[in-house]
Write a structure and sequence with these properties.
alpha/beta; five-stranded mixed β-sheet; about 45% helix
Length: about 350
């Protein structure tokens, strides 16, 4: 009783960490016994808990002895299974090196190595909860999964988490990897040195003889006395300025076109991954396959209209898309754990 009274005197700080492809979002909520006091979010251009992230988190957690740090598991080797029986789990997947947890007659799991990596990465601030994207998906669509058969998809930058539920029972799940070879390719040190040599060859030291020659040629400019010649020089400057503006506009247009192309390519990749996964559900005798008509998408990246069109026109699904903020949903899961 005294413990509860003591706890009520302090704020509860919820720190929610969502790794993305090349960056990390940290979202923090502060609660008093009356409810939410404030929230703040910051994105860091790193996947590690560097000094900036550490200082940002600890500046808030130092305000109360009751702070809770949650991380969304973005590991490749994880999933969900349509059973809570350890013996039955082996029928669907190899779980010898995995940790699993049951919820509502189905289980989600992740490799033990994933847990070690996460704990080590955030050792400086500590980790209280590691949440599976499948629990986030089920929570986000809690108003839907206890009804008739449907497929649910959580769209993230790196992954798709796909699950098929019927009357709250999981029938099938698949964690799909969006990472591509380009994400790991970089310029090597040798390439950088080679490029540096090329730059020096093009823009390096200027020949002093060339400067002398230029001085002789440019001396004639000092003899200009006709105002028309000066006007023509101004026209050249104006033309040069307009050309620079035109080039900037073209570069902006090219950048937008490239972004659209990337969005198209990623959404098409998502479609093909979903198509292959659904094919496995229908064909693999380990799963109780059903004909899926409705698809609910939790979209955290802003998929294009093409993505919806692919699923509707190529696979004949009825598709419903909801935007979601992973950090906010992660915080809701943490508050549910504490029954706040």
């Amino acid at each position: 009783m005294l413990g509860k009274l003591f706890e009520a005197m302090y704020l509860k700080i919820f720190v929610n960490i969502v790794p993305k492809r090349f960056s990390t979002v940290v979202y923090i909520e502060k609660h008093s016994r009356k409810g939410l006091l404030s929230s703040v979010e910051k994105e860091f251009e790193t996947l590690e808990c560097d000094e900036n992230m550490y200082e940002f988190i600890t500046a808030h957690t130092s305000e109360s002895p009751y702070s809770y740090i949650s991380v969304l598991d973005m590991s490749h080797l994880q999933g969900a299974l349509p059973t809570c029986s350890k013996e039955r789990m082996k029928f669907y997947a190899k779980i010898d090196n995995a940790e699993y947890k049951c919820t509502n007659n189905w289980a989600y799991y992740t490799e033990k190595e994933n847990i070690s990596v996460i704990k080590k990465r955030y050792a400086a601030v500590g980790v209280d909860y590691i949440f599976s994207p499948f629990t986030l998906l089920a929570y986000f669509f809690k108003d839907k999964i206890d009804s008739k058969l449907a497929m649910y998809i959580l769209v993230q930058e790196n992954f798709l988490s796909l699950a098929i539920f019927e009357n709250s029972q999981l029938l099938y799940a698949h964690h799909l990897d969006m990472m591509t070879k380009d994400d790991f390719d970089g310029i090597s040190l040798e390439d950088q040195e080679e490029n540096a040599d090329l730059l020096l060859a093009d823009d390096g030291a200027i020949d002093l003889d060339e400067i002398s020659a230029l001085d002789d040629e440019n001396a004639e400019l000092e003899d200009f006395a006709n105002i028309e010649d000066l006007d023509s020089l101004e026209d050249i400057d104006e033309f040069s300025d307009s050309k620079d503006i035109e080039e900037e506009l073209l570069e902006s247009a090219d950048a937008l076109e490239e972004a659209d192309d990337n969005k198209f390519n990623e959404d098409y990749q998502r479609f093909t991954l979903i198509q292959g996964s659904v094919g496995q559900f229908y064909k693999d005798t380990r799963f109780e396959s059903r004909f899926v008509e409705n698809v609910y998408v939790a979209d955290s990246v802003g998929v294009s209209n093409d993505f919806k069109k692919y699923l509707e026109e190529e696979m004949f699904f009825n598709v419903y898309i909801r935007r979601t903020d992973l950090a906010l949903e992660l915080c809701e899961l943490a508050k549910r754990e504490l029954k706040l």
